[in-house]
Amino acid sequence: MSHIHPTAIIDESAQIADTVSIGPYCIIGPHVTIAEHCVLHAHVVIEGRTSIAENCEIFSFACLGKAPQHLRYDGEDTALIIGKNNIIREHVTMHIGTMLDKGKTIIGDNGMFMVSSHVAHDCVVGDNFILAQNAALGGHCVVGDNVYFGAYSAAHPFVRVGDSAIIGGMTAVVANVIPYGNVYGERGYLQGVNLIGMKRRGMSKDDMRLVKQAYDRIFTAEGIFQDNVEAVRGSHGDVPAIKHILDFIKSNSDRALCLAKKD
User: Fold this and answer.
1) Domain ranges across the chain
2) 65, 83, 97, 122: which is the annotated catalytic residue?
3) How confident is the model at residue 1 (pLDDT cuts 50, 70, 90)?
4) In the annotation, is 31 catalytic?
5) Pairing of strands 3-4, 21-22
6) Residue of 108, 111, 126, 139 marked catalytic
7) Annotated active-site residue in 43, 118, 121, 244
């Protein structure tokens, strides 16, 4: 049986599962859907066409599903879709999409969105994503699985970040980041690969060594970048993690690729 505090304001058209707990002074709009076993602490606002899957916990003053911060948004009926098992902390904001894209902002499963972090319109975020306090994704970003953004970091609109990448605190990401990339600095540069993340994902030591060697050959060795890429493809393109990186680079036609900083 759901527990809804008497001070909560819930539109009668909202679809709230029986096992949802809603705290004092929450506001739930007419097009909101909340699945089983979600918990909303006090003063949460959820509006727009927002759907939240099961087992999410949303803390005070989070604001989900509001209109995007985009001058060309004109009230279109767009959506925010949030997966299961997400933890959304205080003052987090997530906005619905725009018709300039697919009309949806999509959040995966098992994420942690720390205090005052922001996911802008039309972003697509994978599973096991951590967005640390005061970090922000600009509109239309695409972020893979198992990605970590450090505190006060930010991604420029339309940036893509591959699986298992790590973005250091206070880093501005203005170019696409390869899977397993380790990026930090005022204007983010590749500083190697995310060895800790690979270890946590269960990658073998041999494969981790090969990924590190492939990274060095592509991003730090002398020679023409594309020639280095093809050399790695010829020698180790059958290693799944390396193939993942190579495929990401091959598909990178819409924006510059984040590179290693040259001395």
Assistant:
1) 3-140, 199-250
2) 122
3) low
4) no
5) parallel
6) 139
7) 121
Q: What is the DSSP string of 179-191?
A: TTEEEETTBTEEE
The pLDDT tens digits for 194-251 are: 999 999 999 999 999 999 999 999 999 999 999 999 999 999 999 999 999 999 999 9
For the purposes of burial, counting CB atoms within 10 Å of the CB of 111, is it exposed (0-12), middle (13-18) or buried (19 or more)?
Answer: buried
Clarify whether 43 is annotated catalytic: no
Q: How confident is the model at residue 162 (pLDDT cuts 50, 70, 90)?
A: very high
Token digits of residue 152 = 């006060």
Half-sphere exposure of 201 (CA within 13 A, CB side): 19
Q: Please say whether the beta carbons of 127 and 144 come within 8 A.
A: no
What topology is assigned to 3-140 in CATH? Answer: UDP N-Acetylglucosamine Acyltransferase; domain 1 (2.160.10)
* Separation of alpha carbons 210 and 241, rounded Å: 9
Chosen CATH of 199-250 out of 1.20.1510, 3.40.50, 1.20.1180, 1.10.10: 1.20.1180
Of residues 121, 111, 119, 107, the one with CA closest to residue 88: 111
Residue 253 has pLDDT above 80, yes or no: no
Q: What is the CA radius of gyration of the chain?
A: 20
